[in-house]
Description:
Layout (H helix, E strand, L loop, with lengths): L1 E5 L2 E3 L22 E3 L1 H17 L2 E7 L4 H11 L3 E5 L9 H12 L6 E5 L10 H9 L2 E13 L2 E7 L5 E7 L2 E5 L11 H6 L6 E3 L39 H14 L5
Amino acid sequence: MEIIVCIKRVPETADADIVIDRTGRDIEKGGLVFDINEWDNYAVEEAILLKEKYGGSVTVISMGPEEVNETLRRALAMGADQAIRLTDPAFEGSDGYTIARVLSQAIKPLSYDLILTGVQTEDDGYGQVGPTLAEILGIRHAAVVNQIEGIESGRTRVHRELEGGLEEILDLELPAVLTIQTGINEPRYVSIMGIRKVAKKEIKVLGLRELAMKPEEAGEPGSLTVVEMVSFPPVGEGAQILEGTMDEISDKVVTILKEKGGVA
C-alpha cells in the first residue's frame, strides 16, 4: 500500500493579533506561530494507520520555503517514510488549481494507491486542492471522508460526511484521492525526541525545473483566481439582550423580525 499525503504549513491565527500587510492582499506572518494544517494532521495519521495495517510506505509532500521542513519532519516523526518539499519563487501566489497542478507534477512519477489531503486548509478554507488533484491525475476521489472501512482487491470503502448529518458510503477503485475530515482518528503525539530522531532524514527538494513546468504554469500567471484584497469583517453592534417573561420575549422577537423584514 503506497500512500501519498499532501500537507500544508499554516499560521495559527486564533489567538493572534492579525495585521494586513502593505500589499493589502495578505496578512503579516512574521511573529506568527506555524504548524501543520489541522485537517492534514488527521490525513497523515490515517495514512500511517493504513500503513500499519496493510504495509507499504507513506510519502508526505508540501509546498513552501525551507521552514516547511519543520512540518515535514513532524510527519516523519509520526511515521511517514519519505518527504518531498516543492520550492520555487515561481510558486508564489498559486491558487488552489495551480497548487494541485504543481502537486500532480511531483506525484505523477511516484507509485501510489491512495492520495490523502485534508478537506481544507485553515488559512483559505477553499477545499479545492484534493478534488482538483484527482481530476488532473484522472483518478477517482471522495471528499469529506470520515471513515475508511478497509482496502481489498484494489478497492476501498469509505464513508463521507454530507449536509444535515447524513453520510454517504462509497466503493472506490484505486488509485484514488480522499480528502480527510477532522475526527476520523486521534492523531498521535509527536515528541521532541521523535523529531530529533528524524532530524537528519533526507527531504527531497523539487523546483520548477525538476517538475518540468514553465514559469507561466505556476504562481499567479498559472492561476485561475487571484486575491486582489483582504479585509477584516465589519464590526457589528453586538447582541441585543431581551428581558421579560417568555410571552414578552416572544412578542419582542416577532416585532424585531418584522422590522428587519424577516416575516410579513
